[in-house]
Amino acid sequence: MPRSTHDSKPKLVALANPASPLAEAYRTLRTNIQFSGIDERVQFLMVASAQSGDGKSTTISNLAITYAQEGKKTLLIDGDLRKPSLHHMFGISNRLGLTNVLVNEHPWNSALRASDIPNLFIMTAGALPPNPSEILASQRMRNLMEELSEEFDMILFDTPPILAVTDGLIISSLCDGVVMVIKSGRTKHALARKLKQSLEHAKARIFGVVLNNVKRKTGEGYYDYYRYGYGYGQKKS
Ligand SMILES: Nc1ncnc2c1ncn2[C@@H]1O[C@H](COP(=O)(O)OP(=O)(O)OP(=O)(O)O)[C@@H](O)[C@H]1O
Ligand SMILES: [Mg+2]
């Protein structure tokens, strides 16, 4: 993804400035995911990156907006139960969220927040639990995903960094595919390779790689939209 300019913050650019090159890049990402999963179910998606601050939350939020704008009933879930941020990103309450549904048995629709964007619903992380990995790996989580799959066309997860905790890999086992986020100029080759190996080891299907924060001015203030390498994802076996 191109690095945002001062006047177009990357946060929810797909909403705030849908005509911008950055918003266009998120739409292209959506299209490429659709192509790479042509014969497979692409309903559950997540982002993954090696470290904190690579741009996962920003990428998955904008991707969710582009699915909703396309008319898909979309649910964005904050699967970062350690440092959740979607409630800040969308300016909504985190009083009731995923962990409340899983641990306190609140009905899932009580934890759904409608956003300002038609077709986009958000489930924030909820109360921070002492045992995030255990909660994400629970049978209750799998049952919840089963129920949600009947209600939504697309279900997207934000996640914590893969190389820090196992949560992201646990979520990957629930997903049809993963979008890897590499931060330009920051993510070292060795870390990127380790990220890819971890995902492949968990049998995750890698739908694409977003090179985020690309600083390349071309012409008069235009930015190189995005750069992906994609197509080397392994099929889930
Ligand atoms: N394309 C971009 N251009 C400029 N800044 C960006 C871009 N993408 C993300 N950022 C900024 O980088 C910072 C980190 O982004 P974000 O919170 O999405 O990362 P993250 O991978 O979710 O981090 P964490 O693992 O800590 O949750 C934010 O301030 C965000 O606005
Ligand atoms: Mg984040």
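^ magnesium ion complex. The longest strand covers residues 177-183. The chain has nine helices and ten strands.
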